[in-house]
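Supplementary Data S3. Sequence and structure tokens for construct A.
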Amino acid sequence: MNNRHSNPFARAWLRLAAPVALLLAAHTAFAQANFEEDFDDENKTWEEIAIQLPAPPKEEDLIEFYVGPTTTQTFAIDAKSLAIGRDGVIRYTLIATSPAGAKNISYEGIRCATFEKKLYAFGRSDGSWGRSRRDQWEGIVRGNVNRQHAALAQDYFCSNLTIVGTEKDMLQRLRSKRTLTDSLLRE
């Protein structure tokens, strides 16, 4: 009679191989679960963080930036307010000044990943903030008129829907009047 388990070595090997096979299967399943979990992070719904409105801007902290040849206003951001949130939104205080000297102050955000902007609040003359009634994300217009958001996004903050650098890098580009394109050409 030919019994394939009558060999003592075969029986010992089977006793050792079975637990090893179980451990390998468990390890493979665990690794696959972690692998899929890493990809699940990319599919998570984006969630905006709660914001805290900054202190009112001070004249000495303002950095003017160029918007284009057709604008009649000058634009600046408050260097102390510029921040990149954990949610990937670049937030800042924007100051628009008319030729007559009237100032409009707003706290805004730019999301490079979607090339959108959001208005959070308006600055009041007493230094307080009034929340915007339209605090929804809107696409950034690249036209010639009202292109201050496009100038910030394209020239100083974003490239290919990605945030470029840190707050310090962005402030350096703004202070030196070197756009992202200028920076690439000089490298």
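Construct B, processed identically:
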Amino acid sequence: MNEMSVTQEPRLTSLAHGGGCGCKIAPGVLADILRGGSPLPVPPELLVGIETSDDAAVYLINDRQALVATTDFFMPVVDDPGDFGRIAATNAISDVYAMGGTPIFALALVGMPVSRISTATIARILDGGAAVCRAAAIPIAGGHTIDSVEPIYGLVVVGLVDPAHLKRNSDARPG
């Protein structure tokens, strides 16, 4: 299947059961799932964790620097492979910016049904994501790949923020 022609390949969106971002677990269901687990220790250096539904976690390194880390991936929301890669990468990188941070590197998260999508199409998805990372001047320093039933692509993005300039959902005000 790796050398199949583009005309034989299915549309990317036909391989995603929930329409890409529509596959998220509903917030109420997620809260129920998380409530059932054992509580984990929360160190004082963890400035932002899961409790506020922010876009990223933030961990204090020192008085002037904190690490911003986010994971974001989804199934195809468009059929063009390059566009899918660009959209997914932009979405992940923007989480660091939303926290007031500056991204410094990314790790790719790739799951593809390799028996249904050609390696050339998968490469176009990754190239789209890489183009966004190049434009943001950050390297893709590694990642993880799996052969999956449905295509998923995204990034782990790590950045830095001055704690004094950290932006949280809880700090948002109307106007």
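The CA atoms of residues 2 and 55 lie 36 Å apart. Residues 81-98 form the longest helix (18 residues).
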